[in-house]
Amino acid sequence: MSTEPQAATARSPRLPRDERRAQLLSAALEVFASNGYHGAAMDEIAEAAHVSKPVLYQHFPSKRDLYLALLDSHLASLSDLMKKALGSTTDNRERVRAVIRAYYEFIAADDQAHRLVFQSDLLNDTDVASRLETFNRGFSEAIAEVIASDTKLPMVEAQLLGRGLAGMAQVSARHWLETSTSLDIDVAADLVSRLAWRGISRFPKEA
């Protein structure tokens, strides 16, 4: 008779479902970030979480389900940060600064989550691509509303600029994280926000 369930119980005591799910997601993040989606195995994730594979499969029927749940969790966290930054002030210049700073803080606080979201080897998967596009569209449209309000540009034009500004935040933040370890986060975020605002502020307001 197998003793695996008893051994797993000894290693990891019974937890409420939400706590267990959070524990499994945390372990999965480490394994996916280290090995990539295709290189990760459910055995490794179960071992990292100190649970048996049956416990892992009770919560997530497959590795893909686990990955998508993790992606959803981090995109939701990033979306919340962006919304809070946009709502933190009524000064549009400061809003731009707050959004870019929040983005930098997100990837600086958890570069594993950043790699999972934007550097996964599963980016061509339909469901993954759809989730990322939903996030990017929501992020850029929220910025577009600020641009339209400040410049009085038509929304279709503001949306294009919003997508460009969102891309600027994402690309510059990833570059900073990966190559600019000597550049302080405040300096980096301020440089990019000043560049973004100077561009936006050049558009004339409606008379």
Provide the descriptors you would attach to this structure in a database record.
single chain; 207 residues; mainly alpha; Arc Repressor Mutant, subunit A; Tetracycline Repressor, domain 2; 2 domains; 10 helices; elongated; disordered N terminus
Structural class: mainly alpha
Q: Point out poorly predicted stretches.
A: 1-10
Would you give the CATH topology of the largest domain?
A: Tetracycline Repressor, domain 2
Q: What's the pLDDT, averaged over the residues?
A: 84
Order of helices and strands: HHHHHHHHHH
What CATH architecture of the largest domain would you give? Orthogonal Bundle
SSE blueprint:
Blueprint: H1 4-11, H2 17-39, H3 42-49, H4 53-59, H5 63-86, H6 92-109, H7 111-118, H8 126-151, H9 155-179, H10 185-201
Helix pairs in contact: 2-3, 2-5, 2-7, 5-6, 5-8, 6-7, 6-9, 6-10, 8-9, 9-10
Report what the structure shows:
This protein is 79% helix and 0% strand. It is mostly helical. It folds into two domains: 4-61, Arc Repressor Mutant, subunit A, CATH 1.10.10.60; 70-201, Tetracycline Repressor, domain 2 (Orthogonal Bundle). Helix 5 packs parallel to helix 8 (126-151). The longest helix has 26 residues, at 126-151. It is elongated. It starts with a helix and ends in a 6-residue tail after the last helix. Mean pLDDT is 84; it is low at 1-10.
